[in-house]
Design a protein that fits this description.
By secondary structure, the chain is an alpha+beta fold. Helix content is about 40%, strand content about 20%. It is built from 2 helices and 7 strands. A 5-stranded antiparallel beta sheet has the order 3-7-6-5-4. The protein starts with a strand and ends with a strand. The structure holds zinc ion. The site of zinc ion has 7 residues, from loops. Zinc ion binds next to loops.
């Protein structure tokens, strides 16, 4: 007979072959653990997005929306992480704006960015 183990505590499972947990306690505990892991992941992404938005807002306040206002390298030094963004928009000039909530950036030249504020 093939033996299976509880997905939560690892104990040997007896009985039905489709059983995943030894009892309701292990089922509930496992679901709660997954939920909390998911929430943690969501919190990490939220934090990264808000940090990115704050950096864009700070740079915008200091320098405004001039082309090449800031170097990609420089904004990364401030803690900006490029792979976290909320959405992209198509600008009138055909370029793509990459946004974190109500702020975003546009690549102007190689390695240079302009910061944009959405209305
Ligand atoms: Zn168990």
């Amino acid at each position: 007979m093939q033996t299976k183990n509880c997905s939560f505590c690892g104990a040997n499972l007896l009985g039905r072959v489709d059983k995943k947990y030894c009892n309701d306690y292990c089922r509930t505990a496992s679901h709660n653990q997954k939920k909390s892991e998911n929430n943690q992941q969501i919190k990490l992404v939220d934090t990264a997005l808000k940090r990115n938005r704050k950096i864009l807002a700070d740079v915008f306040d200091r320098l405004g929306q001039q082309p090449g206002a800031i170097l990609e390298r420089k904004i990364q030094e401030l803690g900006f992480v490029f792979h976290f963004h909320t959405h992209t928009i198509q600008l009138k000039n055909g370029k793509e704006g990459v946004c974190c909530y109500d702020y975003g950036y546009v690549r102007t030249k190689q390695g240079e960015l302009a910061i944009i504020k959405l209305n």
